[in-house]
């Protein structure tokens, strides 16, 4: 269900949790069909919310998405921040990636890492028993 700028109200916003790192913000969302208690993961300005989308998953989980309008600059494009550091990436065959600053990222080799486990399982299979996992 999608609610435009009207038809919903957010109230009782409070912080819960004991430590500074584990604090969460909880709020109560009032809709035309009832109310929900939410855990708010990010801060956003309530004055710029353009839509509220409520999604009900088959598992019974409810997800609420707040769509917030971004302010525009004079040219009609959103404000952009300049990047602090830029890195070029070259994808290859022998190496996963070569970065422009000279570093290499090696290809992941999950098969080679699992050879020891495969050898151990084959040995147990030949002897006719498996270890308890």
Describe how the helices and strands are arranged.
Layout lengths: L1 E2 L4 E9 L7 E8 L2 E7 L8 E8 L5 E7 L20 E3 L5 E3 L4 E2 L4 H4 L1 H13 L6
Antiparallel strand pairs: 1-5, 2-3, 3-4, 5-6, 7-8, 8-9
Give the structure's gist in a few sentences.
The protein has 133 residues and is mainly β. Helix content is 13%, strand content 37%.
Q: Could you please describe the fold and organization of this structure?
A:
This protein is mainly beta and about 130 residues long. It folds into two domains: about 1-70, no CATH class; about 90-125, no CATH class. Helices cover about 15% and strands about 35% of the residues. It has two helices and nine strands; from the N terminus they run E-E-E-E-E-E-E-E-E-H-H. The chain has helices at about 110-115, 115-125; strands at about 1-5, 10-15, 25-30, 35-40, 50-55, 60-70, 90, 95-100, 105. The strands form three sheets. The protein has a three-stranded antiparallel sheet with strand order 1-5-6, with no helix packed on it. It is flat, with a radius of gyration of 26 Å. It starts with a strand and ends in a 6-residue tail after the last helix.
**Total number of helices:** 2
Strand order of the largest sheet: 1-5-6
- Following the backbone from N to C, one meets helices and strands in this order, namely EEEEEEEEEHH
**Portion of residues within helices:** 10-25%
Mean pLDDT: 78
Counting structural domains, the number is 2
Distance between the termini: 46 Å
The rounded Rg comes to 26 Å
Main sheet attributes: strand count, strand direction, barrel closure: 3 strands, antiparallel
Which spans have pLDDT < 50 for at least 5 consecutive residues? none
Overall body shape: flat
Number of strands: 9
Structural class of the helix and strand makeup? Answer: mainly beta
> β content, as a range?
35-45%
